[in-house]
Design a protein that fits this description.
The protein has 8 helices and 7 strands, in the order H-H-H-E-H-E-E-E-H-E-E-H-E-H-H. It has helices spanning 10-27, 38-47, 51-60, 72-95, 145-151, 177-195, 234-276, 282-294; strands at residues 69-70, 100-107, 112-119, 133-138, 158-162, 167-171, 227-228. The strands form 2 sheets. Strands 2-3-4-5-6 form a 5-stranded mixed β-sheet, with helices on one face. Bound molecules: iron/sulfur cluster. Iron/sulfur cluster binds next to helix 3.
């Protein structure tokens, strides 16, 4: 299917993909073995170009080959950034009396979000609700576009924060629906090829990270790439830290503004709907809003 063709319902495409992924799990004999989360299967299919590698990882429950040891500097920077941004969101929400729940490390079918802000009290909220605001925080320069692509399969807005470059932006999946539809369709075709044993072997630079050591194209990864220790010269390390601290308060403030803006959009849309149709219950409204977003109308 071409991206320019009329987009199909994203929800239907996701359901179709999940069904195929389950068939793939059965085909690889995973149903009778240790449970492998759907998110892992979808991520594996999506992340690699070499389909021989994908089948190897799934069939052998193998490490994808990407788990190089990270310098704790990156992990701690990320954890610290998340705390600072969420603290500021709480301060901003409480200043305007907006009730909301903040959840962290939220798992969905095919993703894990750094944070999700949902209107309502803890215990009443659904982390997968279409009215939530998802937040993805990048404390360092890395930006995983494959991960981001999967995040776009859900209709709710996604705020992407990149501290070092001072970027804070809100992405509405409904505004790029042709791409979302295209990416789901491509993954679906990829799973079809895997299921029919017609997958493509794609040798290349990825062979150095591949866990399939039996493949004739496999090459040993160089020692240098096994660890990810920060080896910046002093001056660059100082610049990295300076930029980080210089930008942190700005991105925290901007993220809080976008979250509040989004929660207000939802509250005002709900108010208008309830005034127009007083008997409409909240969950009916949410269902209606999800449908509208999924079909790209506003
Ligand atoms: S070694 Fe290369 S060609 Fe072989 S399975 Fe791995 S990625 Fe594919």
């Amino acid at each position: 299917m071409l991206a320019s063709e009329k987009p199909k319902g994203i929800l239907r495409q996701k359901e179709k993909l999940v069904k195929k992924i389950e068939n793939l799990a059965d085909y690889c004999g995973l149903s009778n073995r240790r449970f492998l989360p759907r998110a892992f299967l979808i991520k594996t299919v999506s992340r690699f170009s070499c389909e021989k590698r994908i089948m190897y990882i799934i069939s052998n429950n193998a490490d994808g080959g990407e788990n190089a040891k990270f310098d704790p500097y990156y992990r701690q920077k990320s954890a610290f950034t998340t705390i600072k941004i969420l603290d500021h969101i709480k301060t901003a929400l409480s200043a305007i009396g907006q009730e909301a729940t903040i959840l962290t490390e939220v798992s969905a079918d095919y993703a894990r979000y750094d944070a999700v802000v949902v209107p309502g009290r803890l215990g009443e909220v659904n982390p997968l609700d279409s009215r939530n605001v998802r937040i993805e925080i990048k404390a360092s320069l890395g930006l995983d576009l494959e991960q981001l692509s999967r995040y776009l399969w859900s209709p709710s807005p996604l705020i992407l924060v990149r501290v070092i470059t001072r970027h804070v932006t809100k992405i509405r999946p409904s505004e790029i629906q042709p791409y979302v539809s295209f990416s789901l369709e491509e993954l679906s075709s990829k799973v079809d090829r895997l299921l029919s044993q017609k997958g493509y072997t794609v040798p290349g630079t990825d062979c150095a990270d591949c866990p399939n050591i039996e493949c004739p194209h496999w090459v040993e990864r160089s020692r240098k790439r096994r660890t990810n220790v920060v080896t910046l010269p002093d001056i660059e390390f100082r610049e990295d830290l300076t930029l980080f601290y210089r930008n942190l308060s700005y991105v925290a403030e901007r993220t809080a503004l976008l979250v509040i803006e989004e929660l207000k959009v939802f509250s005002s849309a709900r108010k208008q709907t309830e005034e127009a149709v007083p008997h409409l219950k909240l969950n009916q409204f949410e269902q209606q809003k999800t449908e509208l977003e999924i079909h790209g109308r506003k």
